[in-house]
Amino acid sequence: MKPIAAGKDYLRFMRALSGNPGPTLAVTIPGRPVPWARTGGHGKRRYTPKKLREYEKQIALLTLGARRTYQTHHVKTLTSACALVMTSVYYTSNKGYWKDTVPDEDNLIKAVKDGLQKGGAVRDDSQFAVVLGSKVQLATEHERTEIEIWELLPR
Length: 155
Prior knowledge:
Layout: H1 8-18, E1 25-30, E2 40-42, E3 45-47, H2 50-69, E4 82-91, H3 105-118, E5 128-138, E6 144-151
Parallel strand pairs: 4-5
Antiparallel strand pairs: 1-6, 2-3, 4-6
Helix pairs in contact: 2-3
């Protein structure tokens, strides 16, 4: 599936930045995007909210599956600097009006970075030197998160 954010300028920019003709890894996560949430707790016990934990697990599993299909390129965990391109697609019935209840893009990116790290796509989420994130509201009910990882400095 072609990312919604993909335009000629975007692809030209990423190819020049990475030196690669396409992304190192591309994954589409079906379902409503879940933002990162602060851990809750009672006293000294802390826990990650269940919805976030399940979303990160889904990202990790789909990343593992995508890495298996990209076997000819990269099977191992990426250890060099990377670029993350992410598009969060939400359903809206407001006929073109922007809905203010959509979560903050920073928190959406944090949740995806944690899921990618847990899935073994990257060694550490601090490897992302470039992060391009966007939120899109469409009149389609196919909510999803589209993720691309571009390796910038392959070793």
